[in-house]
Amino acid sequence: MSQQARINAVQDTVQRPGRSVDWPQTGNRPAYVSEIYGTNVFSLKNLQQTLPKPVYARFIQQIKGRQTLDRPTADAVAHAVKVWAMDRGATHFTHWFQPQTGTTAEKHDSFLTLKTVISGGIEETTAIDAFSGSQLLQSEPDASSFPNGGMRSTFEARGYTIWDTTSPMFIRKGPHGTAILYVPSVFISYNGEALDEKTILLRSSEVLSNAAVKLLNLLGDKETKRVYATLGTEQEFFLIDRALYNLRPDLKITGRTLVGTVPPKHQQLDDHYFGQIPSRVLAAISEAELELYKLGVPIKTRHNEVAPNQFEMAPIFEEASVAVDHNLVLMETLHQVAHRHKLKVLFHEKPFKGVNGSGKHCNWAMSTDSGDNLLDPTLKPETNYRFLLFLVAVLDAVHKHGGLLRASIASASNEHRLGANEAPPGIVSAFLGEHLTEVLNSIEENRDVRNFSQPHLQVVKVGGTVLDLKVSTLPQIARDLTDRNRTSPFAFTGNKFEFRAVGSKQSPSFPVVLLNSAVAQSITEVTEALVKQKGNKPEPSIDDILAVVRKFIAASRNIRFEGNNYSDEWVKEAEKRGLPNIKSCPVAFRQLLEPEHAKLLTSLGIFTEGELHSRFHILMEKYAKDLVIEGNTLKNMILQGVLPAAYNFKKELADSLNSQKNLGLDIEGSPELSTLKKVSKLTAELQQAVDKLSGIIDKVNGLEDEKQGDVAGTELTVSLDEVRQAADALEVYIADKQWPYPKYTELLF
């Protein structure tokens, strides 16, 4: 790769014309977002307008889980969605599912069917467009080529995708003005084992609902029939020029830069955060938003993030299973739209060394079927006993199963980000804020809550206060109940918990599954404690509730931390409290098989034992493979790019010195000689580091199963860093015209 290629790529970024997309019109004005929203979604409203009332009623009962979907109803829904989709250009349909690869999968089938008719005694084949209820309900992709953790042999290929009726079908653009109908689905093996992320999410949602409804019934709420987790995913990502991306083998293959020094200016001035969005990026994000609005994805915010070329998009909260679908649709849409703008979106948690990485902050809460948020403290949380019971249940879950939450966010890519002063560390703790902490302390100590509001200020919503800005032209503003702790992995932020440690590249499904499961178990234990406390009384009294709340407050006290999670003091304090500090992925993955965690997941029916062991082996295998791929990519980049550049630069320096020597000049004190000695030393060190890396890669490849992950996590990660340090040291000295790959200055600015 030549310096000329870098020059051409940089020139291309400057000279390339921008892409413009016309916003839809309504009459003579631009369409409102509300008018665009969901136009490419086959909604219940579409279905209600199409189906006979009795058929529609049967379908609604099926969605609610109250009866099995029968064939006539399935056929009617299939016909209705086929007509709707084909009227909008659809030629194919696909069962869209989420295998354990971190991405989505799809196999396209056309609506085309051949039908034989007999006319005048002669058979004739004609083409028709058809989509039956059986085709809608299930499909058969090859299950052997997806991760299965040993549950399926290569020759056992059959697997099934099954329509998830709780998530709406939608259409997306295809080639040449056509469209494709997407049917959200689960993915199971021939024997019924879960091979995907959606099946376990739906299981955990049902378990959580059952546990929460029982507690609500005990508290006198007989109306609520269902409780569901809500989720809002703040998606962070980088956008870089695609021409420069194409000159970086590490970015193309691994998603992150394996070599590269931080430029003199990066994020230290904090000038990028919330700054003006670059016009080219804004055009891409705006086009992505347009497509997402049509797909019913409720995107709410967009802004610059902390690092150069880093951005964020975030939606309005939705039911967790739909929110996961929408987050994956967002990622796919960003990828496709960025391509049209000659940009490349990077979802890797740490694509650039020395600047902040990216997360996917999962804002999680619980809601009743009437839309009541169970984690809303209201004006006086100290007397909102329902809130207190659900709050202590969540804290109990995090305390007992923090290891599971740590396992849920472990990956080779997220390992670079966690604890790096930009993301929460490997110690799982919960932040509540000063006010809620005081509420819990007062209940535990059986005393009144201290008044947090200043006497001369009015108390406003959620127990907060009004802030007087001392400027007559500015209005008073309401201060929230709690501050926000950016260092906490699991922070309460007003009426929800923000699980900040989730990685930007991963599906939010697995973290939510484990969180749902742990909370469901703790809610059940709270319910059992309350039943025991109330005795023979028809309903628990306030004293009964407070006694149970007090018990769980004391039991989960160690998980609560209000300070700086990055500090060394917290590491020491966490150790005293008995909280695990899990730093490596293999250790985190093994949390899944710890008896107390495994019993939780299998007893609730989230996983079978086979599925749980399968999940562990898939995670370990992927971790090792990711690191081996990084190792081989880095080795090739050094051998084929960096070292040849060093050799050429050394030759230039040597030629210069020889020319001076031939002219009779003294070269002993020349800068060329000094640089040559430094480059020669660094080149030798780099060669040795690469040789060591190659040996460790061979060692990992020669091991079996989970041993690969252990060695990769200890030896290979260290070797990767050693090679990088040597290569980055060389980048400082080698002439820019010799350096083979686009540098950080070009990629980030």
Automatic annotation (TrEMBL):
The organism's place on the tree of life at top rank: Eukaryota
Domain GS beta-grasp: 91-192
Chain intervals for the UniProt region annotation (Disordered): 1-25
Protein name per Swiss-Prot or TrEMBL: Uncharacterized protein
Biological-process GO terms, alphabetical: glutamine biosynthetic process
Ranges of Polar residues composition bias in the record: 1-14
Family label: Belongs to the glutamine synthetase family.
Pfam family, one: GSIII_N
Lineage of the species this protein comes from: Eukaryota, Fungi, Fungi incertae sedis, Chytridiomycota, Chytridiomycota incertae sedis
GO MF entry, a single one: glutamine synthetase activity
Domain GS catalytic: 197-642
